[in-house]
Amino acid sequence: MLPGVGVFGTGSTARMLVPLLRGEGFEVRALWGRSEEEARSLAQELGIPFHTSQSDDVLLHPDVDLVCIYISPPLTRQIAVKALGIGKNVVCEKAATAVDAFKMVTAARYYPQLLSIVGNALRFLPAFIAMRQLLAEGYVGELQVCDARVYGPSLLDQSYGWTCEELMGGGGLHTVGSTLVDLLSHLMGARAIRVHGLLRTFVRQNGAIRGIRRVTSDDFCFFQMLMGGSGPGTGSGVCCTVTLNFNMPGAFVHEVMVVGSAGRLIARGTELYGQRNGGNGEELLLGDSEGTGQEVKDVPLPHLRGLGSMVKALKDAFQAQEERRSWARGPVAMASTFEDGLYVQTVVEAVKRSSRSGEWESVEVMTQEPDPNQNLCEALQRNKN
Amino acid sequence: MLPGVGVFGTGSTARMLVPLLRGEGFEVRALWGRSEEEARSLAQELGIPFHTSQSDDVLLHPDVDLVCIYISPPLTRQIAVKALGIGKNVVCEKAATAVDAFKMVTAARYYPQLLSIVGNALRFLPAFIAMRQLLAEGYVGELQVCDARVYGPSLLDQSYGWTCEELMGGGGLHTVGSTLVDLLSHLMGARAIRVHGLLRTFVRQNGAIRGIRRVTSDDFCFFQMLMGGSGPGTGSGVCCTVTLNFNMPGAFVHEVMVVGSAGRLIARGTELYGQRNGGNGEELLLGDSEGTGQEVKDVPLPHLRGLGSMVKALKDAFQAQEERRSWARGPVAMASTFEDGLYVQTVVEAVKRSSRSGEWESVEVMTQEPDPNQNLCEALQRNKN
């Protein structure tokens, strides 16, 4: 039985998500927007029966059993943690900081019977499912190098907001880079142990952002990850390079290439290509018959298509269940967990640190929450001596 | 009047060069090979009247006024400097070390009336000539980012040799990366001030290189360059990223992209594409009607095609002259000088240093020859105290 859905957010992803949910048979019962006006406007447009700007009104809504959170990163932790506390299943976007991500992990561990996934749609894209399968089967031999690139138009909103602010989770690294960090670790079964990166903000002001306001979030980012792993066949020792550039209007370029001792696999947009060493050039391994005509402004096609596949997987997870809140793990086993979300956030922060220090930074995933009073305690300690 | 040419080298570039020279009307008078056997074999194949393994026999040959040196990097300096000393014009490949490059600069400065160019053919490729022109005209607006990538099959020779040895100038960075370092500074009119890089040797042994022998030269390399410049319109502050991977059999991928505030230019292989922000997608700015069927093993097509253009420029420089050794500067004004060669070598060494240190390294071009006895002097100094 499919649960009723409450959607948080009125941005481009939330707008795409609603029809996808309905297409799979979910009923969207409630919509939350940052302002009453934003919520009303989108609820009317999409015909959603209930709208509000009070998060509790959605979280406590009796017909809502699955909560989808696609809002600005600084608000995500609070709503996700509360939703789990109320006993609702959660699909959400990434948090703003590693500390937030850690709090989400704590909540998810506390309610293991509830669904809690970070909705990185790329993991569900058929091209990447096939790539992961082929990597495991040894198509490329021993993995050596991964190279990912996303080029596209500006990620900034029409008006000043969190997308402009590095500290609020804006910027190419946090928004798009994080999905690649997650994807690459998923594809390889390995995690970054050291990273090096460079962030730049080339466009600090534009027609909408001017006066004393300046963009602080990155529109260009280049980083490398050295992967560690647990043995042969995994991505241990692999170098990953990621290039992001959002000063390139036009269609998104979204390319992920993995190179190994015996061949390579390349996902271009939503299609997968492969080439074995000694073979006759590149072969199309997985096409996309739906074509590329569906490009939506602000959202790369692989994310849009992946979102559709993720919603299908959610349907599969819920539909055979008798109880509205129960779900089967199988169909969503490949999803990014909150633990993965914490890892990704840790990498993102390490890349930012590296961009400031100019040095390789190690990736150390938090194992306990930092004491918010630590600075105070240290100050007291110093005074005592 | 076209000068007689002496060619040093029996490798793939020398083999391609001879027919190109003849195509423009040059007479190839003498060929030098590392061994008598190699020299004889190629001289017979190409119908060159004189061959030798003694460098002086070519340098002192009365019919040779232009010397083209395409040999292993550690031998280049010695022959280039000697050729200038004998009064011959020189086109050569890069040296093995910055110290060698510095000695070549000293010689070139001493004989300013002689032609002395480092034959980076990419500068002469029509796609890059057009790209440079369009950059100067402001096609991309204010330059922000350059991104270059070359992927291809192994650069190793069939048998063990300098290509396997990092210290002898082997490896992707030294062989191909250096041509991109040179090209990017030429395109932008700016030089790297700081670099960061990572080199890897994934294939340490193969069918031909085994036993106690191991490859030490890189087959994978990526590096970033932060460019300095002398004002607006130049590439000051631009980030360049270069990715080289020679574990990818099949056709070479050779792509150079420059992104600016108003658009971008992309050279794919020998063709140039452009896209202006707000325009209708990508446009072909310069095609290559000769197609890509001429791919030669071991040599990327842009290098081959550029070599042809460079030989044409050499003809233009020499042909209107009455004296066999005089030449006009105009047609070869865009060539890479020995000074450029020293800069490139300095960047290559800084990238290698960065790969070892893990840190950004600054690029400081040598201004005087390091004292070979410096270590000795320091040791004596220490003993005295």
Automatic annotation (TrEMBL), chains A, B:
Its main location: secreted. It is found in: Secreted, Extracellular space, Extracellular matrix. Residues 5-112 form the Gfo/Idh/MocA-like oxidoreductase N-terminal domain. Signal peptide: none annotated. Residues 129-265 form the GFO/IDH/MocA-like oxidoreductase domain. Transmembrane segments: none annotated. GO terms for molecular function: nucleotide binding; oxidoreductase activity. The keyword Signal applies. It comes from the Eukaryota. Keywords: Extracellular matrix, Oxidoreductase, Secreted, Signal. Belongs to the Gfo/Idh/MocA family. Promotes matrix assembly. This is Glucose-fructose oxidoreductase domain-containing protein 2. The gene is GFOD2.
